[in-house]
């Protein structure tokens, strides 16, 4: 709202119309649509409107099962690419699955189960083409931390596993519910900075946990904070196994180097993808031949053959532990969504197509619900895997199906091969993956662009590293929400001035050339006016006026006749807002200062009209542009003393 | 950002400058000042800068103790008005104090105590001249409901009283803390609609509770919801005392009529002010002479003489009940602030002076802390009392001191007179007061102006009436917060069009005259762009573009060459926001559509510059006005296909 065309006679200028009243239901409907269906998801269905019910049904089905969109036109070329990608991802998924399962204190086999069924579900329902389904390190750690406290896996492993399935079930239900209720925006409430900090902290903690495997320790603290871990490591220095340390460092170095290479040359992506499997194979052979288990190198041990057994019966939906499972499920569910959707969207952005957040939530939800009934634990779309999938040139979610089949074959025939796989290798795999998650550059950018975001990020990081994951998460969420409230409670108000030889009005604090119009004060309000900021805005505007009058006194200028409020940035207003304007008007009347509004939107006009504030201010003091308002005020306002009886030349 | 002057050559137009980098500390400092000291409280102190340390100290002291501002210039005339007002308020305060104490299940005498000490504290520290300190009905009811559950006053009255003092202490500490930490805006998070609904519901519940007194029942449900109350009333129909019913109705009628009169003719304010005391006196005499206590009319009974005994020792700061007291204190504290500050501000608005919210919080806090150590329970600035004070023509907070002295005299000499005061009169007093609190007109206005606010209001009301006070409160707060989040997560984006024979750009949905510029899409974003809405905005803008292209295809118009984002309403942007713009730019490049920004603020320019998005978009695509942006785009963009290599005529 700034920058106007000189209008010789304000009366001739187009007035701001009060929009005609609209049927209540229609307004409500429109608002609900805008709020919950901003992405217009049923466009495709609506398009088929002409095609009759049958085609509409097909379109709807296609909306629910995106695979129906790409399957019909699925080509052999696409299949080839997806095969390559799927197999590559599988070679990463198998060792990662086992490692993360260990991280979650679950039987290694569960990790493999979790890369099978959920991937199939996502292949059918997912709308991202690059996302590769699998378990996530942070989620696994959260399971170990939150559920382990309730049912130490050491004491009662069976209960612990059941709790894990239950938590997964709740996570899935929660995710699906968010999607169905179109509450996708809840995920947006976690700021990017908070996520970076939280993820970084979690990765650090996970790395520290791996010291257990690398050093070959048998006992280890269950606490996750750096202090406890370091103490527990140092206190057991006599227990360190040099063999395991050597092995670990060798493999870690190998993995990091391969990752470095494939980062350098994207066409070497397969290096980093195959490296984990390679190290698992190498490690297993090594241990097998040198009988490493006798030299204090722990191995995975027996893995039973066969695909996922059903686990629906194991869910503890009504027991004393249910609440813990629920809490764990909700927290991990949110984190899974936050990461998964972010990953999906960033790749979609690269290939220039759109990922529907709410659809993804439903897909994730069903994926986990089905998973919880087939011996899987929490799955999402981890970045590392999806990146490999993308670099391997996947074309459709079919790559997930391919991976699932590959994992299934592993489950059916190859599990015995993992008997001699040393845990230290798994630790190395996790560590190298986690070191990739810590995003230094992002932190640097945050510092450069937005110091506050930087603090949020660091706060979350420190909370995780020195407190525990929940503390870090609540710090992140807390600061994010507080920031939103501050944004809302402290909107910007700026003084506008006239730009030389033009009629544009611009912020005086931004453009030194902008000159105040004598006798007038032009203020712009940069936010909707409603209960959360009405009080503040009243005070702030009054303060602007006081300052202006002080200045006028000090420089003995022409006294203040009129305050022009530029309303074009005010998107909406509520009862408290209209009351605020009413108070302001009365207040200024007493100080015999006229008030004028420039370019209020239609919602504003409607509300002002209904609340009679429009009549109070006077229709003739509402203008299309700031320029007209100023001209009019200068022509029709006597100096201060009797400005109230401003006469209007209409 | 709308309305521009035709500029013949875009190159000649004033460019949008990138503000020079500012020292970090200074930026942080300014932001903190704007956020926490928007009302510039230290202005007075700063003014004395020249006057040296001494005078600055005086000014600071004056800031802490507002009474130092008006005492020096306190005139005899003011004293006379304050005497009248104070005595009038006292005549209301005494019966009301006793009644509300009964409502809170506390000994009646505590109600009198609570009108003495806190009033003195506020007289010294309060910055509102009309606010009259006293106990509040809703707060009293909350005490009875929340503390009564923990320690039924019937079983252990002594513990209950101590809990009440403790809760008051916590309320005060919480209020003071909010004030000292300048977190006044927390109170604003309760929307006006929510408060109206909640207060109305509470008033209804309080009235229902009075049926006990009116019907002369001895046993009554502790539940507050309408169902339980009605059941308990009906089930005891045989216990009803006609004498008490008659007495109650007579007095209630008397009180309502007087209130009606003084509403009609403000100069009869003393009628409504004196009526309660009058009915107490009349009731007492009546009961005394007809020995009403023998006819089943319950009376207050013995009140011991003397002023507030110290109660600091009674505070339960570390017991099993502390948590309940803390919870009660925080909730009632917030409600007390919400009502008190609202009352203070509305009267200040009438007399055209300013009430400092944070200062008031500190005053309220100390008032309650001191009160809790002198046998008082929660006090605030109830509307009914303050209105009487205002109508009685009070000039300064001195009227509170006068009232306090009057109450003190009552405590010292007149308490025996209340021995025969019938409870039914107290019930009548409470009822008439509460019927005044239910604000029908406000609800009507809400329905007329804002349907959503109306729903919030009704929701809170029903929650209180059919659930309980906490439920109602959490509904109110919950909806308010949800609404804020929605406001934030779903900002407005509107399409702008060129107004005929002017260069103003206005919303096409508001002004039918506004015409789209061929080949261009002008969008205005009406909110800061940050993590909470960046994702949504990306989707919404993309959707606008898609729709536009559909339209173009349908009507086979000139293809879309350039999207102009009007940024003038974007007050700030964060990392997620800049990332969003970056994504959008890349995305549009792929669709070979140019992007241009119009009138971004200095914060935006700084952030865009630091995050290199400015370089990505290109300095030559940032414009001072939408008009310039459009002219430039039309001149320099080839049609769609190769818009990316737009040449710039600079």
UniProtKB/TrEMBL annotation, chains A, B:
Domain of life: Eukaryota
Subcellular location field: Membrane
Record GO cellular component, one term: membrane
Keywords for the protein's UniProt record, in alphabetical order: Membrane, Transmembrane, Transmembrane helix, Transport
Transmembrane regions: 131-148, 160-183, 189-208, 240-261, 268-290, 324-350, 362-380, 400-418, 423-443, 471-489
Topology with respect to the bilayer: Multi-pass membrane protein
Chief location of this protein within or outside the cell: membrane
STAS domain mapped to chain residues: 510-633
MF terms in GO: secondary active sulfate transmembrane transporter activity
CDD domains reported in the protein's UniProt record: STAS_SulP_like_sulfate_transporter
One family name in Pfam for this protein: Sulfate_transp
UniProt cross-references to InterPro entries, sorted A to Z: S04_transporter_CS, SLC26A/SulP_dom, SLC26A/SulP_fam, STAS_dom
PANTHER family (alphabetical): SULFATE TRANSPORTER
Name of the protein described by the UniProt record: STAS domain-containing protein
Organism: Zizania palustris
